[in-house]
Amino acid sequence: MTPRRDGxxxxxxxxxxxxxxxxxxxLRFPSTSGGDRxxxxxxxxxxxxxxxxxxxxxxxxxxxxxxxxxxxxxxxxxGDDDGRSxxxxxxxxxxxxxxxxxxxxxxxxxxxxxxxxxxxxxxxxHAIRGSRCKHLRRVAMEVTEGTIPGPDERVGVCAVCGAxxxxxxxxxxxxxxxxxxxxxxxxxxxxxxDTPLVVVAVTAERADAYRTETGRPIAAYAxxxxxxxxxxxxxxxxxxxxxxxxxxxxxKRYGFPASRLVRADDAGRETSDAVEENx
Length: 279
Known about the structure:
Elements: H1 34-81, H2 84-90, E1 93-97, E2 103-107, E3 110-115, E4 120-121, H3 124-129, H4 134-145, E5 153-157, E6 164-168, E7 187-190, E8 196-206, E9 232-238, E10 254-257, E11 261-263, H5 264-277
Antiparallel strand pairs: 1-2, 2-3, 3-4, 5-6, 7-8, 7-11, 8-9, 9-10
């Protein structure tokens, strides 16, 4: 355990039918024989049926036109994609992030540069047609799947295990992966003493650069000899030093090489694993 010096913490609607059935009043009925009258009535019925047939025909035509319109719209939408998404996923491409937040995409047909935030690509499909090309889509897919860092990230290396990890683009100092990283408020244990602490902050300083109140680097203490000098220092407070109503940030902080601390849950699993190994 190493006391930390005082100081700030780094931180289609459809148309109605156009035909209208003519009014019956508009037809003349001769007042002659019943046969004529029946004939005329039959004519009225026939006229009405013809009108209904016309209306049905118009409605069918309108329905067909609407369906054709919908099909055309669907076809146009598919034409916008024109299989680009499928090719983005299946075509052979290699994507590499650049240091300026852009990406190089290598394909059998050439090498292009994609700016994901701006939505641009140097390929002819985008430059000439203005299309959202397969290269843009491929980069977006890989970012979403987590195989490459996003535009606001870069590839870092965990100071504890050496695994590659994505970190904020401008993050300084040594970095930690998700497995070995900590958040403010995490309950942890000291591997050396099994004492519980609460994390206050993960600094950007290495253990061989972070100095205590006495001026000694954290890495210089004998109890830290088994941990990496290059690891970032984690500031934490002892649980038993906290008083009711007190704030964690107001308690006395101590600095530890990152790998000397382990999350409380992980500590329990490590103990269980050790017991199993010794059986």
